[in-house]
Amino acid sequence: MYPMRVFATNGQEAIDIIKSESELSTIIKPCRISLILTECNLPTISGFDFSQTVRLMEPPISDIPIIALTSLPLEEIGDKYIKSGMNDYLSKPLKTNQLENVLTKWISNNSIINN
């Protein structure tokens, strides 16, 4: 998976891939997480709904930066990603420098959860 390779080359650790909302609490609660990278169009829940679910959790989980990952143009999703509680936006196909910039902006020296 491309994002995991980029994370590994930048000294970051990709912990897990969450495929559904039901997996969220079992993976996210016991881990120390710096960032959530979520696809906006997930099969069982939208990334926007996923983001709102995380924001309703107790701190420090609710404070984790969430980055939208989508092939939709920014004009098409407008402010929806911000209104859902996401902190930033990445457009697919991912470019290494864009991903590195987001990692630098939002991550301290913790692990990454990739959705």
Number of helices: 6
Q: What's the CATH topology label?
A: Rossmann fold
Mean pLDDT, all residues: 76
CATH class: Alpha Beta
Strand content: 15-25%
Q: Give unreliable regions as ranges.
A: none
What is the CATH H-level superfamily? Response regulator
Q: Evaluate the radius of gyration.
A: 13 Å
| Biggest sheet, spatial arrangement of strands | 1-5-2-3-4
Category by helix and strand content? alpha/beta
- Could you give the count of β-strands? 5
Domain Response regulatory: 1-107
Keywords: Phosphoprotein, Two-component regulatory system
Organism: Cetraspora pellucida
Protein name: 9229_t:CDS:1
Molecular structure report:
It comes from Cetraspora pellucida. This is 9229_t:CDS:1. Keywords: Phosphoprotein, Two-component regulatory system. With 115 residues, the protein is of the alpha/beta class. It has a single domain, classed as 3-Layer(aba) Sandwich (Rossmann fold), CATH 3.40.50. The chain is built from 6 helices and 5 strands. The protein has a 5-stranded parallel sheet, with helices on both faces. Strand 2, helix 3 and strand 3 form a beta-alpha-beta unit. The longest helix is centred in the last third of the chain and has 11 residues. It is globular, with a radius of gyration of 13 Å. It starts with a helix and ends with a strand.
